[in-house]
Each structure stands twice: as structure tokens, then as C-alpha cells.
Write a structure and sequence with these properties.
The complex is a heterodimer.
Chain A (H helix, E strand, L loop, with lengths): L9 H6 L6 H7 L15 H14 L12 H10 L5 E3 L5 H20 L8 H13 L12 H17 L2 H6 L30
Helix pairs in contact in A: 5-6
Chain B lengths: L1 H11 L9 H9 L23 E7 L5 H10 L4 E4 L7 H4 L16 E4 L36 H5 L13 H11 L26 H13 L4 E2 L9 E3 L3 E3 L24 H7 L3 E3 L2 E8 L5 E8 L2 E12 L2 H11 L14 E4 L2 E5 L14 E3 L14 E6 L3 H12 L4 H7 L5 E8 L8 E8 L5 E6 L4 H20 L3 E6 L2 E5 L25 E3 L14 H23 L1
Parallel strand pairs in B: 1-2, 1-10, 2-7, 3-17, 10-20
Antiparallel strand pairs in B: 4-13, 5-6, 8-9, 9-10, 11-19, 12-15, 12-18, 13-14, 14-15, 16-17
Classes of the chains: A mainly alpha, B alpha/beta.
The structure holds flavin-adenine dinucleotide (FAD) and iron/sulfur cluster (SF4).
Flavin-adenine dinucleotide (FAD) binds next to strand 8, helix 9 and helix 13 of chain B.
Organism (chain B): Hymenobacter sublimis
Keywords (chain B): FAD, Flavoprotein, Oxidoreductase
InterPro entries (chain B): FAD/NAD-bd_sf, GMC_OxRdtase_N, GMC_OxRtase_C
Chain lengths: 200, 563
């Protein structure tokens, strides 16, 4: 069974209806805003590096305007927010990102003699794969547990991506239509407001 | 019909009796206007009373441990103040059905997680706010079994509780009826009970039905779970009408209907109706004592200002990480050497599978189905036991766990997540034995307040590993029988337990069987930290039962003194 697809526009349309509470709409609508973001924590080069890495972890070739994940990380680090815990083996988050992104660039240099941002997509994928496998070269990995860094990076980007209404639309999640509650909850039972999947 | 819903939303809020429906009004009249005493939700902090005032009791924390006893003490006529680090919110207005927006429900101060199986905190474990972790618990409310409290007697491992489950049973009954627990009567696993659940079970969702069918084929008995979410509208004494669950599946990030029995819609309004004062955004940092070692006051920070509250008795109910942290910070109750020790976390292994069926894991109460056939499995090579639950999940939590475990990235990641609507999970909650390597300590690293961060060491020991292996095999069998493919297991540890345990002697325990610290006569501890063993069931109902018991023992002792 290949991955199902869902019709475009369902979540955007839902958000306009009174099936969604005011609180939920207020949380989701701002995430659809695509205006330019100026980094507050990372310097320009590091921010662009993070963007480039995020674009390989969440490639979105089908989207004219990809969902931007780097602003979520930058804002969090600028505000010093935490999710309540940290691996004791890891340095504080700001330091971890500084070391980890630096390490990715070092790996790119060793493997392809160029910074990550200047590589082709397949080359970038090779660098990310080396980090994922824990085999990436680079001096920074002496100071940062590579597997934990990659795990943290993946988890933070996953949370950022799937918090976005369009990513939720992509996987057919419409739980935000919370006003009426759900009656048809058994397997293969859908409510009128639940989009049917488009079988591939 | 949206308009009807708006009307109904008014009914949900027990703090606003004036806008409730005619039926309610007539019942109110019959009940002598009980509800009319319910407090109005505080939007602004109330003016602070004179700080030199001494109150009978200060309660730190308003979760499962703090809230029930707060109500009990207030109802006995004592002057009580609760100090709660987190905010007070209005669920009908402030709770978005969005995981990210609900971040404020979690204890987000950074904790350091050490050991071979570092425990995730924040959204995995710890809530904050008026209501504590019950604001985001899934409201599973199984009772502990008789033998859960005597692991040492039965297995020669772990420790026994200083009393038997019969001490908790009357409180279980009271709680189930007060909170409005929905569940099966008779309950299939325990010995027969005196009373059944007040409400019928909640409807089963996709994951629950798939698990039910597969288990039937494998000869595993299942039942709809006991859950403190209302399967029907329910009149709660001292609080008023609460609305039925709408199967919104969002319990972990806050119920906006008041259908889930979190403390903010149950014990806390009851406590306030009887004169308790709850101060939100009040973070306690210091506990002051006199020369004899009795607690005299607590110091807390509220809206950037330091304040002091004097008290005759202190109830520390800050949860199994912040409670030992406060004790260590204040060098209090340390003579047993057990503060911070015996940290336990329930093995909470999850097994996920992808199904042909369209499941939509966001619908229905997340944990619909239970089996306790694994309570004492005959083929077990471990001490204690576990229970099985079907689980639903919201997309962000699912994606995050999946990323950590499967390390997928790029196109395979997006493809896998596209089958979100076809995934269903089962998980366990099982006993955990205390071990010397599992403990909490203060780290050198400081938090924003300048206080040392807690560092929690946790390594799953042989018993936990064996239990996980047993459970993983069984859950995989169930999902295979149900027709799942791409089955994967996520090893996780949930619930913070231990760290200030209860026992018969101050040599090896921090509090006595009545919850009082052995070496501080007017300090009581009541939350997850006093559990001597982890139990093979979810903890909240037992924490609440202990809370009521501690309050009753305290009140009885006070009476004895008065005479
Ligand atoms: C996602 C999730 C699902 C869960 N599901 C279930 C379930 O289905 N069934 C079940 O039985 N259990 C469940 N639990 C666990 C259950 O919620 C907790 O075990 C229980 O609420 C713990 O009670 P407690 O009183 O020990 O601590 P808490 O409820 O956490 O209360 C402690 C309170 O103290 C406050 N506090 C801490 N430090 C300070 C300080 N210094 N000053 C002032 N206030 C302070 C905190 O803000 C908090 O409000 C779940 C937990 C989570 C996170
Ligand atoms: S499923 Fe029921 S109890 Fe849970 S959040 Fe929704 S309405 Fe509340």
C-alpha cells in the first residue's frame, strides 16, 4: 500500500468554518503567514545553513513556498525556551546547535571540500546521511554526541513541520475541527468534515 | 449546529453557574444552591492577603496529590492556601486543539536526563498550572491491585507498602463517584468490588476495536478501560454539571469541555467553594524553619516579586521531581538519606503498526481498551506485571516519537507520516523496581531563577528490560494478528515515581504511612514521590486516594491534639 494522499485546501477551508474554535483558529492561522523572517539568534550564514539542512530533512519539491522550519528553531533559541528536558550528555541547546551545524559544515568540507550550502542536493544528502549514521567527519563531533544531536534535530524539526496546518493537511489530520466532537470513530467511519484519501 | 455548541460551552464551566440550563436550575433549587457557591474564575490575581498572616496549611502544587487534600482540609474548616507555580487558565477559552499552542500545560523548565535510558520530561511527564499534570493526563484510572502493594512479600524484590490496598479502597470508591469515572461493571480482573463505576464505558475507537478483535483471537481478555472522562453529562457535588466527552481525543493537551476529571474542574472548585485560596504563578523556592526544625513559612516568587506565607503545616505536593528538588535545595527531611533516591518510571513501551483500515488516531478517547491479563503472567521471567492499553495519538507527538526512534529523514519520512491515519498503537504500563543507580540530584547548572537544575538518572534494570521484552513480543503478536504491517516498538518510560518514599521507619523512608516527614513534625508530602513501589497501573487515581487518606489522617490527628 503506497502512502495515501489527501485533497488540497481541506484544512485551509476548515479553518474558515465555525467547526473550529476561536482558540484553535488563533493558534493555527498565524502559521500560514509566509512573510520573510529575519533571524534573531543565528547569524545569517548559520541560519542559511540550518535552512539548507532542514530542506534536506523535509524536502518539499512540490511546494512553491516550502514550509520554513528554521524560524521555529531560531525563535526558540532566541527566547531560551526549553521543552522541559535535555540529555545530560548534551551541552545546552544553543551550544548544541552551534556545534552541530558547525559539524555539518565540517563534514561537508572533508567529504566535498565545500561548505554544505554550496553542495548539490545529492551531496547534501550524503552529508546528512553521514550525520544520521554517526560517521560524519569533523572536529566538532569530538564535543557533541552525534547521535543525540541528530535525534534532537529530527525531533524538533518534526514538531515544527507537523504543527503546520499544511503539513497536517498532507497527512489527513483534521482534529482541529474540534467544535462538534466526533461520533463516527470506528475504523473506516468518516464524518462529513473528514477528507477522504485519494488512493494512489 | 455551532450555535447550540456555544450555548453548551457555557454549561461546561462549573465556575459560571449563572449561565447554565433550566434543568440545572431546578436541580440547583432542590440541592439548596450548592453550585451557587462555586467561585468565579479568577482572571486577575486576587489582592494578596497580609503576608504576616499565618494560615493552617499551605499546599505546594495543585495536581493529583495537592488538589484532593486541599478540598478536604478546606471542607474541614481549616484556613488553607495553595501555591501553584503554573498559571490558571480558562479551558473553554484558552485551550486550542493544537499541540504546540498547549505547550503552557507542561513543566518546561529544563531538567537534565542522565543514565542509559534518560527519561523525557515536559510533555511526556510533567504538567503545570492550576490542576498540575492532571491538566494533560489521559485520565486512565485503573485501581492498584492488592498484590501491587506487596511486591517484596510475593517476590522478595522491591519493597512493600506500609499498608494494604484495603486502606485505599474506600477512597477509590469515593473518587470514582466524585470524578465520574466511566468504566466496565463488573471489572473483569480485580476481585469483585462493592460498587461499580458510576458511568458506562466510553465508546471504542479504531485502535481499541482492532486490538479487541485481535486479542479475542489470541485468547487475551480485554475490556473498555476505566477513564475519568464522562461518558454522559454528570452532576458533581459541589461543582455542578459537567458535560460529556465528545471523543475529541485531545486529553493529553487539555480538555476544553471539562469532561475530563482534571483537578481544575473537580477538586479545586470544590476547595475554593469551601474557602481555600489558590495562588497561581507562585513558585516556591524556600521553606523556612524555626530552631526546633518545624516549618514556619514558605517563600515564593509571584509576578517577579518575592513573598512569604506563614503556615502551621506544610503539604508538599510538587510531584516526584520538584518535591525532592525543594527538599534538597532547603536541606529538609534529609536524615534518612532517601530524598531523591528510588526514582522509578513506568516502562511505557509502545508498539505501532500500519493498517489497511482508515483509523484516524485523533478520534475518540486515546486509551479506550485495556487488558490486565498481563498483571501476573504465568510465563513471566520478571517481578510484578503490567497492563495493556490501546492508544490514539496526535500528529505532532507521533511525528516526534517516530523521528526519535526511527530516525527517518527526507522523502521516506514524509511518506511514512502520510500513513498517520492508518496507524494504531498499543502500550503498556508496568512495575519498576527501585534501584540505587536511579536517583535525582541537584546539578551544578542553574535555571533562570539561579536554582540548580535537577538531574535525573535512570537506567532500565534487568527487571524492566525483561518486562519490556515480554511485552514487546506480545504487543507485536497482537498487531500481527490484527493485520498490521511495518510494526515498530518505541521504548519509553513515563510517570515520575519515588524519590521521597513512604515507609515504617525513618531509617529507610522519608515519610511515615500517614505522609508525615519522619524528621519534620509539620511537613507532609503527598504526590507521586511517596510511592514505595511503582505499581502496575497508572498512578493518578492512587495519588488522589493517598491524598484524601493523608488529609483524613491529618485531620484525625489534629482532633486528637485538640482534645
Ligand atoms: C501525557 C500524560 C498522560 C498521563 N496519563 C495518565 C493517565 O492516563 N492516568 C494516570 O493515572 N496518570 C497519567 N499521567 C500521570 C499523572 O498525570 C501524574 O502521575 C499525576 O498528575 C502526578 O501527580 P502529582 O501530584 O505527583 O504531581 P502533579 O500533578 O504534576 O502536580 C505538581 C504540581 O506542583 C507544581 N509545582 C512544582 N514545583 C512547584 C514549586 N516549586 N512551587 C509551586 N508549585 C510547584 C507544578 O506546577 C504542578 O502543578 C499522565 C501524565 C502525562 C504527562
Ligand atoms: S476526548 Fe473527551 S475528555 Fe478527552 S479532551 Fe476530548 S472531550 Fe475532553
Amino acid at each position: 500500500m503506497a502512502s495515501p494522499h489527501y485533497p488540497d485546501g481541506t484544512v485551509r477551508a476548515l479553518l474558515q468554518t465555525d467547526l473550529v474554535t476561536e482558540a484553535t483558529r488563533a493558534a493555527l492561522l498565524p502559521r500560514l503567514d509566509t512573510s520573510e523572517y529575519t533571524p534573531q539568534f543565528f547569524d545569517e550564514a548559520t541560519y542559511e545553513l540550518l535552512r539548507a539542512v532542514a530542506a534536506r530533512i523535509y524536502p518539499q519539491p512540490e511546494r512553491p513556498e516550502p514550509i520554513e522550519l528554521a524560524p521555529v528553531v531560531d525563535k526558540r533559541l532566541a527566547q531560551g525556551d526549553s521543552d522541559g528536558w535535555r540529555y545530560d550528555a548534551m551541552p545546552p541547546d544553543r551550544e548544541a546547535y552551534r556545534l552541530g551545524l558547525g559539524g555539518i559544515n565540517q563534514a561537508a568540507q572533508v567529504l566535498f571540500q565545500r561548505p554544505f550550502g554550496h553542495l548539490s542536493e545529492p551531496q547534501q544528502d550524503q552529508v546528512v546521511a553521514a550525520v544520521a549514521n554517526g560517521t560524519a567527519p569533523g572536529e566538532n563531533w569530538q564535543h557533541l554526541p552525534i547521535d543525540r544531536f541528530f535525534e534532537e534535530l529530527l525531533a524538533e524539526l518534526a514538531e515544527a513541520y507537523y504543527s503546520h496546518p499544511l503539513a497536517q493537511e498532507e497527512i489527513g489530520y483534521v482534529g482541529m475541527a474540534d467544535v462538534p466532537g466526533w461520533h463516527r470513530i470506528e475504523p473506516n467511519q468518516l464524518e462529513a468534515r473528514e477528507p477522504e484519501e485519494v488512493k494512489p | 449546529m455551532p450555535d447550540e455548541e456555544v450555548l453548551e460551552e457555557g454549561v461546561l464551566n462549573p465556575a459560571k453557574p449563572e449561565i447554565q440550563d433550566p434543568l440545572l436550575k431546578s436541580i440547583l433549587a432542590e440541592n439548596g444552591g450548592l453550585l451557587a457557591q462555586a467561585p468565579v474564575e479568577q482572571e486577575q490575581p486576587a489582592p494578596l492577603p497580609d503576608p504576616v498572616d499565618e494560615v493552617d496549611c499551605v499546599v505546594i502544587g495543585t495536581g493529583a496529590g495537592g488538589a484532593p487534600l486541599l478540598a478536604r482540609l478546606a471542607m474541614a474548616g481549616l484556613k488553607v492556601v495553595a501555591l501553584e507555580a503554573g498559571p490558571r487558565r480558562d479551558p473553554t477559552r484558552d485551550y486550542a486543539t493544537d499541540e504546540k499552542a498547549q505547550h503552557f500545560l507542561f513543566w518546561n523548565d529544563e531538567r537534565l536526563s542522565a543514565g542509559q535510558n534518560p527519561v523525557a520530561f515536559g510533555n511526556n511527564n510533567s504538567g503545570t498550572g492550576v490542576g498540575g499534570s492532571t491538566l494533560h493526563y489521559t485520565a486512565y484510572t485503573p485501581r492498584a491491585h492488592r498484590d501491587d502493594l506487596r511486591l517484596f512479600t510475593d517476590f522478595g524484590k522491591g519493597v512493600d507498602w506500609p499498608f494494604g490496598v484495603e486502606e485505599l479502597e474506600p477512597y477509590y470508591e469515593e473518587l470514582e463517584h466524585f470524578l465520574g469515572v466511566s468504566g466496565p461493571t463488573p471489572y473483569p480482573w480485580d476481585p469483585p468490588r462493592r460498587t461499580g463505576y458510576p458511568l458506562a464505558p466510553l465508546p471504542l475507537n479504531g485502535a481499541a476495536l482492532l486490538m479487541q478483535k485481535a486479542c479475542a483471537g489470541l485468547g487475551i481478555q480485554t475490556s473498555p478501560a476505566a477513564n475519568a472522562a464522562l461518558s454522559a453529562r454528570y452532576y458533581q457535588e459541589g461543582v455542578g454539571w459537567r458535560e460529556a466527552c465528545t471523543n475529541r481525543g485531545f486529553c493529553q493537551a487539555g480538555c476544553n469541555r471539562g469532561a475530563k476529571a482534571s483537578m481544575d474542574v473537580t477538586f479545586l472548585p470544590l476547595a475554593e467553594a469551601h474557602g481555600a485560596e489558590i495562588r497561581a504563578d507562585a513558585f516556591v523556592t524556600e521553606i523556612e524553619r524555626d530552631a526546633k526544625g518545624r516549618v514556619t513559612a514558605v517563600v515564593y516568587t509571584q509576578y517577579g516579586e518575592q513573598k512569604r506565607q506563614r503556615c502551621r503545616h506544610l503539604f508538599l505536593c510538587a510531584g516526584a521531581v520538584e518535591t525532592p528538588r525543594l527538599l534538597l535545595l532547603n536541606e529538609l527531611a534529609l536524615t534518612s538519606g532517601q530524598v531523591g533516591k528510588n526514582f522509578m518510571a513506568h516502562p511505557g513501551m509502545q508498539v505501532w503498526g500500519t493498517f489497511e483500515e482508515d483509523i484516524r488516531p485523533y478520534k475518540g478517547i486515546p486509551g479506550g481498551l485495556i487488558s490486565e491479563d498481563t498483571h501476573r503472567p504465568t510465563d513471566a521471567d520478571f517481578v510484578g506485571g503490567y497492563l495493556l492499553q490501546s492508544i490514539g495519538v496526535m500528529p505532532v507527538t507521533f511525528a516526534s516519537q517516530m523521528a526519535r526512534k526511527r530516525k527517518l529523514w527526507g522523502q521516506p519520512l514524509r511518506d511514512y507520516m502520510r500513513s498517520y491515519n492508518h496507524t494504531a498503537g498499543i502500550n503498556i504500563l508496568g512495575d519498576c523496581l527501585p534501584h540505587e543507580n536511579n536517583f535525582l540530584e541537584l546539578a551544578d547548572e542553574k535555571d533562570v531563577r539561579g536554582l540548580p537544575k535537577p538531574r535525573v538518572h535512570f537506567t532500565a534494570q534487568e527487571n524492566e528490560q525483561r518486562m519490556n521484552a515480554h511485552a514487546e513480543k506480545l504487543m507485536r503478536q497482537i498487531w500481527e494478528a490484527a493485520g498490521a504491517r511495518d510494526i515498530w516498538a518505541y521504548e519509553r518510560y513515563a510517570h515520575t515515581i519515588g524519590t521521597a518514599r513512604m515507609g515504617l521507619s525513618g531509617d529507610d523512608a522519608v515519610v511515615n504511612p500517614e505522609g508525615r516527614a519522619f524528621d519534620v513534625p509539620n511537613l507532609y508530602i503527598c504526590d507521586n514521590s511517596v510511592f514505595p513501589s511503582a505499581l502496575s497501573v497508572n498512578p493518578a487515581l492512587t495519588i488522589m486516594a493517598l491524598s484524601l487518606r493523608t488529609a483524613d489522617k491529618f485531620l484525625a490527628a489534629q482532633q486528637r491534639l485538640d482534645r
